[in-house]
Amino acid sequence: MFRSLKRYKTLRKTKKVKGGDGHPLKSYRLWDIFTRSLFYTELVDENNHTITYAVDFKFWVEEHKAELYRNGRHAGSSKLPAAFPVPGGVIEVGTGSYGINRMHVVTDEGNVYPLYPDKRSLRGLRLWLDRRFPRVSSFIGKLAVFILILSLLISLPQLLEMIFQIPWLIENIGEFHSPITLPAAVNFAIVGAGILAGYERSLTLRNHWLIDIETNYWDN
Fold first, then answer.
1. pTM to 2 decimals?
2. Pair 113, 161 in one domain
3. C-beta of residue 40 within 8 angstroms of C-beta of residue 50
4. Residue 83: which region, alpha, beta or left (left: phi > 0; alpha: psi -120 to 50)?
C-alpha cells in the first residue's frame, strides 16, 4: 500500500516536468557558490550507453525550479519537489528550510543513492572534507545532530507554552508554563547554533523528520 502511494506521488511529480530546449550547461564557477548548486550522476541506458545527467538549482529566485541536463544539454525543468524520469528510475529533488535536502536517484527496484555535487561548490568541498578527513567529518556531523537535539529539547517546552496560549486550551485543559527560562542572549546563541547545524545537515543531504524539526521551528 505504502509503495503504491509513493509511486503515485512520484508519478504526479513527473507530470510537472517540462521539456528542455537543448541549451548547454554553464560551467560552475567560484562565484556561483552563493547563487546555485550543481549535481551530477552517470547512468546506463537500455543501449548500454553511459549518460551524464546534471541537475542545476538556482538560489534567490522567485520560483524555485530544478533544471535537468543530459550530456551537457538542457533536457527538462520542473517545479519543486521534482522527479525526473531517467533510465532505470527517477531523479528526485526536494528542498527544506536550509536549501536542498534531497537530490537522489531512486531506481525502479527502490534503491536510493545521492548525486555527487560539483567539486567547486560548498557541498563539493564538504564531500572532499568527508573523504579526506573522515574522522573530522564524522565529528562535525555528530556535533550537528547533538546541537539540533539539544535545541529541540530546549525549544519544545517554549513551543508548548505558545500553543497553550490558545483560549480554548486554557479553558479546557489549563495553562502551561515552560520550566526552562533562558536569557535572550542564550536563546539567540541557540538559534545561531541551530541554523549552522541545519546548514551542515543540508550540505550533506541529510534530513530526519524529528532531528530537523527544530530548525523548521526556529526558521518559522
1. 0.76
2. no
3. no
4. beta
**Domain span holding position 65:** 2-117
DSSP 98-154: TEEEEEEEEETTS-EEEPEEPTTSHHHHHHHHHHH-HHHHHHHHHHHHHHHHHHHHH
Share of the chain above pLDDT 70, in %: 89
pLDDT at 219: 40
Q: Are residues 84 and 47 in the same domain?
A: yes
Torsion sign over Cα 10, 15, 20, 26 = negative
The more confidently predicted of residues 67 and 188 is: 67
Say what the pLDDT of residue 217 is: 39
Neighbours of 135 (CB within 10 A): 7
Q: How many helices (H) and strands (E) are present in the chain, helices listed first? A: 6, 10
Q: Are residues 150 and 187 in the same domain?
A: yes
- Considering 9-13, 125-129, 165-169, 205-209, the range whose residues carry the highest mean pLDDT is 125-129
Indicate whether 4 pLDDT > 80. Answer: no
Eight-class DSSP state of 24: B
Angle at 183 between CA 178 and CA 189, to 5 degrees: 105
Residue found under cell 536542498: 100
